[in-house]
Design brief:
single chain, mainly alpha, two-stranded antiparallel ribbon, 7 helices, 44% helix, globular
Length: 204
């Protein structure tokens, strides 16, 4: 999914993005620094879980409760410490604590989908039972472990060069010259700002 989806009314909208290149990095994109807390309701969290592909579309998540919000926010913070620690000259003091916690969370088995026939005969993914929070968190933590222990993938981690954008993404572009989390978002802002600077210089 390229950019995301909006939920709620015009005065109560949430933009969910799925373009960072890994599920664990998409989780970081929901952090408070960009610019508001995305996971401020179960509705938004469940939309994010489905949007990432962690569960097949239509999977019941009515059993989710407030503890899910707490768990996803905690894991997001721990993964953030590890990812930013990899990008820093030296790991942060809390790096080892975050590493141990992510490893513990990754032990939970992720939900295993089955291929079943739909009404038109095509194969679709289905879960035998609604997923538990621990399993979903385990799948994301495992994705983080795989990313951060793969030297090639880890070398592709980039911080967006957009003004005040904290998003970290996986650069898989040719030559690894991608500069922004999204060409349509931060890239477009940079192009508009560049145009305005040129126009101002021309007027001067």
């Amino acid at each position: 999914m390229a950019l995301g989806t909006a939920l709620g009314t015009a005065s109560d909208a949430y933009e969910l993005r799925f373009d960072a290149g890994r599920i664990c990095l998409d989780l970081l994109a929901t952090a408070t620094a960009h610019p508001d807390e995305r996971f401020d309701s179960l509705e938004v969290l469940c939309a994010w879980i489905t949007g990432t592909g962690l569960v097949p579309p239509g999977t019941p998540l009515a059993h989710a409760d407030v503890s899910w919000l707490v768990g996803f926010r905690e894991l997001r913070g721990r993964i953030g410490q590890l990812v930013h620690g990899c990008l820093a000259p030296e790991p942060w003091p809390s790096y080892d604590i975050a590493l141990a916690r992510v490893n513990d969370i990754a032990l939970a088995a992720p939900p295993a989908p089955r291929a079943v026939r739909s009404e038109d005969g095509t194969l679709v993914r289905r879960l035998d039972h609604p997923p538990e929070c621990s399993a979903l968190l385990g799948a994301i933590a495992r994705d983080a472990v795989e990313l951060l222990t793969d030297p090639v993938a880890r070398a592709g981690l980039r911080e967006c060069e957009g003004d005040n954008c904290p998003i970290v993404y996986l650069d898989t572009s040719r030559g690894r010259r991608r500069r922004w989390c999204s060409s349509e978002v931060c890239g477009n802002r940079e192009r508009v700002a560049r145009h305005r600077r040129r126009a101002a210089l021309a007027r001067a």
